[in-house]
Amino acid sequence: MATKKEVDLIIKNANELLTITGGSKKPLLGKQMKDLGIIKNGGLAVDKERIVAIGKTENITSQFRGRESLDATGKVVTPGFVDPHTHLVFAGSREDEFEMRLQGASYMEILRKGGGILKTVRETRKASRTELVENCKRWLKIMLEHGTTTVEAKSGYGLNMKDEIKCLEVVKILNEKQLVEVVPTFLGAHAVPPEYENNADEYVALVIEEMIPVIANRKLAEFCDVFCEKGVFSIEQSRKILLNGKKHGLKPKLHADEMTRLGGAELAAEIGAVSAEHLLFASDKGMKMLAEKRVIAVLLPGAAFSLMIGRYAEARKMIEFNVPVALGTDFNPSCWIENLQTIIALACHQMKMTSAEALVATTINAAHAINRANEVGSLEVGKKADILFLDIPNHKFLGYHHGVNLVDKVIKNGKLVVESS
Ligand SMILES: [Zn+2]
Known about the structure:
421 residues, eight-stranded mixed β-sheet, globular
């Protein structure tokens, strides 16, 4: 009788094992988003942080013996969630503005009065690197407990050379000090800082001529992003910044068509951005262009909900147009949501995405939005063993049973790191 191969970990008896295969090279589109690659009574073997086998439990247990073994009876097993859009690095809070918004003030009115992003900029500039690291560690721990194993984090509350660098250095430190992988994005063009009020072009020149070269050279970011919005950065300014970033090796991303129809989706397609984010007001033409250029639409229903914008991105239309759709939290002081399960529930209820589509959008498609689809986002041989046990009988409970944490266990890089009591 052949001896069994010994591996670090085996997982067995999953009611549904959701592999979400087929999307590692290209994001899943249209009807492909409904196929979760479900294995009933599934199992997998993990060795040296990676998945080495996947299949029916009996096939796994007949071939492998785990130094550790986890039983997923009655549970759904999925890839770890990937959050492709957060503004993780900040200090302070904005609960007073939340009350102003409840009384009818708009996000842009608050920003024009020096609140919003600019309030957080003041507080983040004052904060030390250590304070920021401690803040982020606390929030990343909450994210991990809710199933997020990879997260993107933007700078953008420094808005000068010194403080933008400080925030990106915080991300670097976080990758050494805690378990969630954090992917850095430079968002120096998040708002026009007070020193450049009424002189946005001069600030754009600073971003392009001074910040981008230094940040790219020091490898502090992988992506460059811009808040392209009426009253913030124009299409022309955004194009300039992103093309310059691209020249320095920073891949373009864009906050596009969030509050107004400015043509952000079209710009993202034109310059070959990796992703366009928000897109509440994207035009049909813009969506079709995103589909054609395979730009990932990162939809952020938590922001639409928190800012009470009164509409959501047209996810159904985008899926119909074969736009690759991902979902993120947009975690920031005006949208304080660490939990991607909340975003899945909002995506289902407000944008009519199905549980399966929302799961694809928070795993493999989200991984594409931050250039990690070759490593995470699906359960396939060779990929990192970032795995969740969800305490639900089948995947259709995602978005349906909400308001509680459905995560039972989190495995990060092959190690059990969260276990519900
Ligand atoms: Zn954002």
